[in-house]
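Hi P.,

Sorry for the delay on this. The queue was packed all week, but I finally got your sequence through. Input first:
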Amino acid sequence: MACDNGERVRVAFALDCCDREVMSWVATTKGIDAGLVGDLMMQAVESRFGPNSTAPSEIEWLTDNGSCYTAAETRSFARALGLKPVTTPVSSPQSNGMAESLVKTIKRDYARLALRPDARTVMHQLVDWFEHYNTKHPHSALKYLPPRMFREKQALTN
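Then the structure:
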């Protein structure tokens, strides 16, 4: 994400493919590395299963083929958390359509409309953008409910 002063903010996120909630995210002005991806995975697992938890059964962790995702350190840590690392086919962004759709939505509905003078300002706004996305942004695939509300309604019916 480009800022007015030329700085760039890079964001990685964990998106639940069932309810489309952004469970966790990380941002940096440097590159996304295996350490940040590890933080992202741990935050996502804790978001769903509680502090100091692992997934109760193996859950697929789908990513692109970036080196930070395919690193042995990342894959090993994923397995320790109960995640099964899976990568999309090379040169096939459509195979991860939900993630691509989220990126498009964040750029269109949040970043484009926001003041972006510098990286610090953008990184501060990300908290509100993702919270709004999770709690207010309707999704046609979720019967026009925001992700968190959809998940809460699903929990009541199960």
